[in-house]
Amino acid sequence: MNFQKQCIAYQTMVVKEVGRFMRIWVQTLVPPAISMTLYFVIFGNLIGSRIGEMGGFTYMQYIAPGIIMMSIINNAYSNVVSSFFGAKFQKHIEEMLVSPIPNHLILAGYITGGVTRGLLVGLIVSIVALFFTELQVYSYTLMFGVVLFTSILFSLGGMINGIFAKKFDDISIIPTFILTPLTYLGGVFYSIDLLPEFWQKVSLFNPILYMVNAFRYGMLGVSDINVGYAFSMICLFTVALSVFCLFLLNRGTGIKQ
Amino acid sequence: MKALQIQGLKKTYGSGLQALRGIDLDVEEGDFFALLGPNGAGKSTTIGIITSLVRKTAGRISVFGHDLDSDIAAAKACIGIVPQEINFSQFETCMEIVLNQAGYYGIPRRLAEQRAEKYLDQLGLWDKRHTRSRTLSGGLKRRLMIARALVHEPRLLILDEPTAGVDVELRRSMWSFLSGLNLNGTTIVLTTHYLEEAENLCKNIAIINHGVIIENTSMKKLLGKLNTETLILDLNSKLEYPPEFTDCQTRLIDPYCLEVEIKKTAGLNTLFKEIEQLGIQVHSMRNKSNRLEELFMSLVDNKKQAVA
C-alpha cells in the first residue's frame, strides 16, 4: 500500500470514528458537559466558596484544569474502548483486518478518534468553566502538549482494554474500578500538600497526578510536582503503550483466532 | 497463473482442536472453484487464514503470486471476501459501508462512489443506499456484503456460504450475478451447503473433511464417478409395492411416485420395456437433481469408515 493509499485509508478511519461519536452526540458530548457543570456548581461554587484559596488561586480556578483534564481522560479512553470493542462485537473490525491497511494505521485511526473526542469534550468543558470562573493560560505550549499526549495515552489505554475485552462488562471494569479512583485521587480537587506525608508519597505512584498537575501548571503556573519530570513520564508512557498496542495488533490478540 | 496456492496448511486452535492437517490446494486464475465439506470440516478456517482473520499454524499461501507472509498488502488487495456471518456495522447506511471499505483499500472517494453506485445498483440495493443496514432483510444484507467485497474489484472473490438462508428467487439471481462476474474474469472460490449450487456454478471442486482434502478434481470428472442415476417416475395409477427391474433399485416415495436408481451401464430401453410389461402407466419422468449430494455423502462416508 503506497503512501497515498495509506492517507486515504487513514482519512476513512478518522471520518468514520469521528462520525460515530458525533452521530450519538447526546451520549458522547452532552453528558460530560452536564456532569462537569455539576462539579463546578457543587465543588467549585457551593463548597469551594467555604474552602478559600488553594495554591494562590480561588478553589474554582484551582479545580478547573483538573476537571477539564478529567473529562479529556475519560472521553479519550471511553471513545476508543467502546468503538474498538463494538467493532469486535459486531465483527466489522474484520472489514479492516481483511484490507491491506497496516496495523499501525489501524491504531492511528482509533487513537485519532479518541483524541478528537477528548479534545472536543475538553473544549466544551472549558467553555462551561468560563461561566463559573476566569481561565488563564500560563504556557500554551505546555498546556496543549500535555492535553495532546494525555489524550493519546488514554486512547491507547482504551485500545488495550478493547483488545483484551471479551464481553461488555470488561470495558466498564477498568474505567470504574481503576480509572475513576485514580482520577479522583490524582489531585483534581486538592493539592497533595494537604495530605499527610505518607499519602503524599503514595500519590506519586498515581500517573494521573502527573497529568493533572502538568496541565494545571500550563494553565495556572502552579504544580505539586516537577513539570519536566511529569511531561517526560507522559511521553514515556505514550511511547511504551504505543509499542505494546502494536505488538498486540500484530500478534492478533483478541481479534484473530 | 494460479489465483490461489495453498501448501501444507495446518491449523491447531488453542483448545487443541486440529482444524487443518496439511492442506494443499491450487485454484487457477478464472476458475469458479467449490470448496465443500460437512460442518466443522475446516472450510471456514481455510478461508479465515486466506483472509488473515485466522492465524495459521504452518504452511504457505500465495494469492496471484503474492505471498501472504512476505507480501501481505499486495495479497490482501487481490482478495474480496463475503463471509458467512453478517459483519458490517448495524448503524451505518449501505452507502457508508461500501464507501468505507473502498477507503480501507485506498480507493479515492470519487472512484469509490462510482463503484459503489455500480455494485449497489447491480445487486438491487441502490434504492436502499441511505438505509441503515440493520433494517435490511437477510437477503439484502447478503447482497450488501457482496457489493462491499467487490468495491475494490478483487481478482479473487471468496464466498463463504453466500446463499445461506436466502430464498430461491434471490439465490438464483445471485447465481446469475456470480456467473457473470466469473465470465468477466474474476476467480471465485465458493463454499456452500447447497450442493446443487456448486454443481451448477463451479468448474472445479475440492472436498474437505476432518481437515484434509479428500477430493480435488474437476466437477465433470467428479460427477463422472457416479455410477448410478436416479429417476423419478410420476404414475397415473397407484402402486401397492415397488416393482423390481433389472439392474435397478426402486423405492416408492408415495403410491403415485416411484424412485428408480439405475446403473449407468444399464440401458434405459430395458427399463422402459419392463415398465410396459408390468402395465405401469407413467405420467412423467425427471432426473433427481442431487447428484453431487449423493457423491458427496458417499465420499464423506467412505472417509469416515476409513478413519474408523
Protein model, in words:
- The complex is a heterodimer of chains A (257) and B (308).
- Chain A is mainly α and 257 residues long.
- Chain A has one domain (3-250).
- Chain A is built from 11 helices and 2 strands; from the N terminus they run H-H-H-E-E-H-H-H-H-H-H-H-H.
- Chain A has helices at 3-23, 25-28, 30-51, 59-89, 93-97, 103-130, 140-164, 170-184, 197-203, 207-220, 227-251, and strands at 53-54, 57-58.
- Chain A has a two-stranded antiparallel ribbon with strand order 1-2.
- In chain A, a hairpin with a 2-residue loop joins strand 1 and strand 2 (57-58).
- Chain A is elongated and about 60 Å long.
- The model of chain A has no long low-confidence stretch (mean pLDDT 90).
- Chain B is α/β, with parallel strands linked by helices.
- Chain B has 2 domains: 2-224, Rossmann fold (3-Layer(aba) Sandwich), CATH 3.40.50.300; 228-307, Alpha-Beta Plaits.
- Chain B has 10 helices and 14 strands.
- The model of chain B has no long low-confidence stretch (mean pLDDT 87).
- At the A-B interface, helix 1 and helix 5 of A face helix 2 and helix 3 of B.
